[in-house]
Amino acid sequence: MSIDFDKRAIKTSFSKAASTYEACSSVQKEVARDLLTYLPPAPVFPVGPRRILDMGCGTGGLIRPVVSLYPDAAVYGCDIALPMLVKARETFNGKNASFVTGDFERIPFRDSTFDLVISSLTYQWAVDMERAFGEVIRVLRPGGAFVFSTLGPSTMRELRASVEEAAKRTGGDGLPAPMGFPVVEKVSGALKGVNFERVTIEQGPYRKEYKDLMDLLRTLKGVGATSPHTDGGKNLGRGTLLKETARVYKKSFPSGNDGGIAATYGVVFVAARKP
Predict the structure, then answer these.
(1) 130: Cβ contacts below 8 Å, ≥ 6 apart
(2) Cα four-point dihedral sign 65, 96, 91, 109
(3) Cβ atoms of residues 249 and 162 within 8 Å
């Protein structure tokens, strides 16, 4: 199961966002806090996991509480964007966490290295989700756990609908296609396809408010979450379509708070075990 978009564009976007990520990542921080409640209970790891990997760790927001929860574990953060890791290293300053660059479709660790792999809002960027999950099960030890969050298809539904309606009204194009997200059945199928077991999945919408469309787009750019698709022209109609999208969005999806707009993040929480 693969998705057609430019992996280089993803790396570039997140690298550029390293300096703005912390200020713009309120949703990411909230989801990371909630992900902690899905970590395996004590009976799974009677003495605690000894080695933990945070895949797609960004600036290290999930690693901070994990280091506190498992103070005796060796914790590793891995991310495709080196500037993100530089920020993470500045935060931790060598305190029980190590960082390495790497792609989740080719994790730079040996087989059976970790007791626990965690990840928050990363795997929606996988070009080939089954291959990415295959890398996780490879680096997990037998009985190890994989706990992660990702984004489902309801994410940014308001933006997709507004772009589509605006294009109909203007007869124009020029904006890259808003990113789509896999349904739960595909996530589950990809996990089971590489032999994960005890797969459990829960979903929960997160609703956020923004002043207007530009505020939303700036926030997405600030965390590196720009469209990885390379389509979209540079013609003069692009600006017209963007303005019409803003008008449609404000009218169709108001936040009910000072004329702002609402946006949905369809978050999916997943836990699975390696046999």
Answers:
(1) 1, 190, 193, 194
(2) negative
(3) yes
Instruction: Tell me the pLDDT tens digit for each residue of 191-221.
Output: 999 999 999 999 989 999 999 999 999 999 9
CA–CA gap between residue 17 and residue 9 (Å, rounded): 12
Looking at this protein, which amino acid is placed at residue 262?
Answer: A
Phi, psi dihedral angles at 197 (to 5 degrees)? -130, 175
Tokens of 84: 């993100």
Whole-number pLDDT of residue 6: 72
Query: From residue 274, how far is each of 38, 85, 136, 191, 196 by CA, in Å?
Result: 16, 28, 9, 10, 5
CA angle (21 as vertex; 50, 65 as ends), nearest 5 = 25
Q: What whole-number distance in Å separates Cα of residue 180 and Cα of residue 155? A: 8
CB 49, CB 73: distance < 8 Å = yes
What integer pLDDT is reported at residue 43 of this predicted model? 60
Strands 140-151 and 261-273, by their bridges, are antiparallel
Buried b (16+ CB within 10 A) or exposed e, 105-126: bebebeeebbbbbbbbbbbbbb
Q: By C-alpha distance, which of 99, 48, 92 is closest to 70? A: 48
Q: Which residue has the tokens 């075990």?
A: 273
Closest CA to 58 of 32, 30, 37, 38: 32
| Span 167-199, pLDDT tens digits | 888 876 655 556 778 889 999 999 999 999 999
Pick the closest to residue 82 from 8, 32, 6, 16 (CA basis): 16
Phi, psi of 88 (to 5 degrees): -65, -45
User: How far is Cα 33 from Cα 66, in angstroms, rounded to an integer?
Assistant: 10
Share of the chain above pLDDT 70, in %: 87
258-270: average pLDDT: 93
